[in-house]
Amino acid sequence: MTVTDHTQATADTAHSHGVIPDKSRADRIVSFDVDAFPVPTGREENWRFSPVRDLKTLFADEAAEGHLEWATSELPAGVTLTEVAADDAQARTVRAPGDRASAVAVKHAGGAMALTVAANTVVDEPITIDLTGVGGEVRGHLLVELGQSAEATVVIRRTGTAHYSELVSVDLQDNAGLNLVLLQQWDEDTIHAGEVVARLGRDSRLRGTVVTLGGKVVRLNTSAAFAGEGASVDLFGLYFADSGQHQEHQLFVDHAVPKCTSRVTYKGALAGKTAHSVWIGDVLIRAAAEGTDTYELNRNLVLTDGARADSVPNLEIETGEIEGAGHASATGRFDEEQMFYLRSRGISEDQARKLVVRGFFADLIHEIGVPAVEESLMRQIDLEIAHVEEELGDE
Amino acid sequence: MSTLEIRNLHVTVETPEGTKEILKGVDLTINSGETHAIMGPNGSGKSTLAYSIAGHPKYEITEGSVTLDGEDVLEMSVDERAKAGLFLAMQYPVEVPGVSVSNFLRTAKTAIDGEAPKLRTWVKDVKGAMENLRMDPSFGERGVNEGFSGGEKKRHEILQMELLQPKISILDETDSGLDVDALRIVSEGVNRAKDNTGLGVMLITHYTRILRYIKPDYVHVFVNGRVAEEGGPELAERLEAEGYDRYLADA
Fold first, then answer.
1. Is B90 an interface residue toward A (CB < 8 Å)?
2. From the candidates B53, B78, B86, B167, which should be mutated to test the interface with A, based on the most A CB atoms within 10 A?
3. Are the C-beta atoms of A348 and A354 separated by less than 8 Å?
4. Is the pLDDT of residue A103 over 90?
5. Is the model's pTM score more than 0.90?
6. All domains of chain B, ordered by start, with CATH?
């Protein structure tokens, strides 16, 4: 097992300062111009853990012929899904791309699909969008827009095979509430680099859950920027990396205005010799962001030898007038004492492992708030654990 | 009628200073319905005896045998030992976050019995057992040992014992750290199990106080990895008066 925990953070401390990167996170370039981003070599700060060779086709500044099959649940009144021309799509995107894959995606997506919830529309049932890869290179640009005081739950599930790059723009007008669930349940040969950029208006509330189980390489960067006071963001992530899988989640929460709250909670399990997960959580509290309350947590559970979990929390604070700021990162081996305890009650080794891993993820899964998704995920996790047992059995 | 038979048990453990022998030839026989108090000073190997019988991977058996009704316990995996009818109430029960007590109890009961318990009677049994141990019904929804107080952990151990109905139970310092009220509640649970199922008990303790509530049939004084003296309940009274000094001087 290799565990790289790049901080001194521990699970029970909330500090008023953290590891400060060489350059402020605020200085990182964003642009719709692909040429603003050289092709990554793997030496760049934000690519240093990524398998850039596997991502090569996603950096190519050229049109892609492939597409994802779309299937959408019936849209209730006040909700529309429309095609938006490229110029308009760019104008409605809340922030320019932050890396080359994302810039290429926007440039070559041929416009965007926009899911729009009209102001004051409250949607009770989850809106589900199934995106299925059918092979080939695919570029995607998606807009999720909630008008003032609109509320909705949106579940976007990705399956199948693709080389897919995307930008998902999330625009919450004042007092809007969105529960956004992004499920990466790709086939095992899929390469996916995505960027989710969210802008939160005054008093708006975003719950974003990312679940990454499938794919060969998944690299999903989420940025949330506060544009008005009193807003809150909860970002949850769950991942399970097997042999041959690289799962990377980078987060950036930009506290630019006062009195906003952010919580980041990502948990991952790793199993198999070449399983690799990366979590980078950046939080920036700008000078103006007085009264900020933020906490970010990453926990990794390493089930077998050889898996590697990189975890890098960064907290940058430019004002002392805050409610709270902390981070924690912990990566641990599977606990043999827990196994002994359960087995001493007659529970078999396989079943004990299942209980422990399910328990590890249980609180996160309950946060999703969509019962059908929660149940399906528990089943998926059981399948992942069964896969671990096969690997252990092979040894 | 069941019998746990321990013969000439030698156990080693790996330490930073090298392999260390903790048990140096233990002989002990426990029958159904009997309560054997194992008493001794700290570090005498009492807990090692408990964990070795339960099959903790940290301990290596180098010599001797443990059988339950003639079956070789040492050949069994940890969960097979539990299914055979052994139970270990741990001194420091382990937290299993996110796994609810009710799910855990049902999973364990199903594993031990080889079939899921009938829902209606099971719910009633759990409720009754929890009431007897003065446990709030909300307990079932909490994570296993997660944030439990010392007393709650011990009651949870006894709850499992009462529901899983083992043949022989090893109680590893179940009394340590309990106030007298909690001690009484826990002891009642052990006595109930004895009355209801003819449980055989290996009661490991450092203190004599619990023996006022759970009456031992036999007392074994454990010193330096073996039984130094055996007798009836009167031996416990003598220990209460004199302590372990007499044995330590000899050791």
1. yes
2. B78
3. no
4. yes
5. no
6. 3-250 (3.40.50.300)
